[in-house]
Amino acid sequence: MTDDPAGSRRRPTGRRPGDSGTREAILDSALALFAERGYEGASIRAIATDAGVDPALIRHFFGDKDTLFAVAVSDRTAIPERLAASLAGAPQEIGHRVTDSYLRMWDEPQTRRVLLALVRSTTTAERAADMVRDLLGAHMHETTGITAEDPRMLGVALAASHLLGVALARHVIRVPALATMDHAALVDQVAPAVQHYLGNVLALPGGARRD
Question: Is the Hydrolase keyword given for this protein (predicted)?
């Protein structure tokens, strides 16, 4: 599978009419360039050029690049909601559901763009990492009630780290054994470990899952 976020997005044909259309165009271009270049590499001027607007409009709508990044990631993704939905169901199958949902999002071009933006930005800019951690932590708390200080967060962190490592090896580093593996076969290999991590989360006090 080929990653080409630049080739898959529409090129600007000029300034979009209306505040709403301009704002949406900026967010589309920002997400695409954050995915291609990471947080540090995607300048306000480059995003403005890609969106067909003046850089001053980005400052008008978002203030600075930090805010633009946070809004682009949060407004342009249903990733937390999809992962939250995978938590519902039989506890003994939670590892398979979460693994299938997460790895499937890496296989889908639209969600892969967002995931690439997150990875490339958070690994090159501490500020971007802080914002993403805060955003995901807020989603986690809203969905599950788990906070950063909760003992259950260890299991969540281990599951997330395992899944991220597999995704990076498959889609970014392209380790042949993983890059060519069928999705269902890969899920079957990874899910038991995720089940172990998340099963421990459910076993701790307060770990009852909300259907």
Answer: no
